Amino acid sequence: MLGNDKIIGLSVSNVEQANMAAETGCDYIGVGPIYATGTKLDHNPPLGTQGTRALLEYICTLPGPSGTWGRDVPTVAIGGINLNNIYYVMHQSVSPASPARKHLAGVAVVSAIMAADDACDRSEHLRKLVDEVPPFAERQNGQFIAGVDFNENLVAILANVVRSCPVVHHITNNVVKNFSANVTLAIGASPIMSEEISEVGDLASYGGSLVLNLGTAGKDAQLLFLASMKAANARGNPVVFDPVGAGATPTRLQLSHQIVSSGFCDVIKGNESEIRAVYGDTSVKQRGVDSIHNKTADPLDRVRVAKALALRERNIVVMTGVIDIVTDGVSIFRLSDGTHYQAQVTGTGCSLGSVIAACMAVNKERKLTAVVAAVCAYNAAARVAADRKDTRGPGSWQVNFMDTLFELQQIVMPLSERPPREKIWWEKLYERAERILV
User: Fold this and answer.
1) C-alpha distances in Å from residue 108, one per residue of 26, 33, 34
2) Short-list 421, 383, 92, CA closest to 261
3) Coil, helix or strand at residue 68
4) What is the DSSP letter of 28?
5) Would you say 126 and 110 are in contact if contact means Cβ atoms under 8 Å apart?
6) 3-state secondary structure 315-331
7) Which residues are annotated as catalytic?
8) Which of 9, 33, 160, 201 fits a disulfide with 362 by CB distance 3.0 to 4.6 angstroms?
9) Local confidence pLDDT in tens for the 438 residues of the chain
10) Domain 9-131 has CATH 3.20.20.70
11) Separation of alpha carbons 361 and 210, rounded Å
12) Residue 255: alpha-carbon gap to chain centroid
């Protein structure tokens, strides 16, 4: 009745509806609702970007009439999309595992246009945002070179921090604020500890980075976390999220999921239990902030979880432990360095996030290298401090650790002014960084 030149689309909210769409061989599909919308009050439960990714992944497997219908059919996101979330929806709604990596073809919008004073201008603005690369998704230089040349890349990352002194905005827990601020200063960056929501835009304008730490977050933290992440994302400032104790209580888990699903976190850093909880492993049981996951399990399983989360979120995951895992879902690094004292001084795990944030702030075009450099330098400094003769326990180690980190500022000194080569501990960071295939 419509003729051969008409296009037919179907709305899809779940697997059953996707199967029906595949049987019809429709010309396009609308996936959603992504968020709650007032346009259709009886809509299905919102998918969020996480649910959208899962549905896109399933759609890729559907042959339809052509045999490749699922991979080929244009897919648009629908439901609750506006100027504030369109960047995130377009960037994050990508099937994580299928070889085709199915992306959205666009968005379908009603309220965001019809409620605008100038519908034409708003439509043009939305279309521009669909076509643009988000500020937080800067193209990456992903080349890694082994050995000494790789170490030169790591040292260059750290030198950029000392030269540029980036601002690192911390929204972190009360227990570690002093320690994290001093660590940030020691490596040559500039910390600010602000939990004033009216300041988040001004602080983001400095072009630094943001640390979000769930440690002692209270009931009012949600708005602050989301507002600060939105401001950082808009500027392209790296965001490091530490879901402290995410597996310990339902409240922490819910807030962790909300943060990850409401904006872009360049890095998610946590111990094994925390990373598993954010990934969605319902078997996680966490005692406070400590990881109590089965340490006798397959050690490669923790690598697979970190890789899967990084692929799903299109970001970098740092899983800390005796051996740290750093991955962007494609490249995987196993980093074996540090000291047992790190587990005996409160704040050492949280303050690693400060170093990661500082390194990423001034190395946005090579974020993964920046994260590897941060973890390698932090743990190497911890080991060197532990080996010093006057280190007698956690207290003296903490002082020596801060002094050792401060030595990184010698990186930018002329060679004639540097200490003897045998005392320059950062020149062999690569020796404890192993790139693996899983």
Assistant:
1) 17, 10, 11
2) 92
3) coil
4) E
5) no
6) CEEEEECCCEEEECCCC
7) 350
8) 160
9) 667 778 899 999 999 999 999 999 999 999 989 998 877 777 788 998 889 999 999 999 999 999 999 999 999 999 999 998 999 999 989 988 766 689 999 999 999 999 999 999 999 999 999 998 888 887 666 555 555 578 888 999 999 999 999 999 999 989 999 999 999 999 999 999 999 999 999 999 999 999 999 987 777 788 999 999 999 999 999 999 999 999 888 989 999 999 998 899 999 999 999 999 999 987 766 655 555 555 546 778 999 999 999 999 999 999 999 999 999 999 999 999 999 999 999 999 999 999 999 999 999 999 999 999 999 999 999 999 999 999 999 999 999 999 999 999 999 888 777 777 667 898 888 888 898 887
10) yes
11) 9
12) 15
Q: Which of 359, 358, 403, 412 is nearest to 382 (CA)?
A: 403
Q: What is the pTM of this model?
A: 0.89
Closest to 59 measured CA to CA, from 87, 88, 17, 90: 17
Amino acid at 296: T
Domain boundaries, the chain: 9-131, 147-436
Residue with tokens 């998610």: 268
Q: Which two tokens stand for residue 293?
A: 């996951």
Query: 350 is written with which tokens?
Result: 């949280």
DSSP symbols for 73-116: S-EEEESS--TTTHHHHHHH-B-SSSTT--B--EEE-SHHHHTS
Q: No. of H helices and E strands in the chain?
A: 16, 13
Residue pointed to by tokens 């690693």: 352
CA pair distance 271, 438, nearest whole angstrom:
19
The dotted CATH code for 147-436 is 3.40.1190.20
State the Cα angle at 125 between 122 and 129, rounded to 5°: 140
Edge-to-edge strands of the sheet including 324-327? 190-193, 167-171, 209-213, 239-242, 267-271, 316-320, 324-327, 332-335, 433-436
Cα angle at 31 between 136 and 48, to 5 degrees?
A: 50
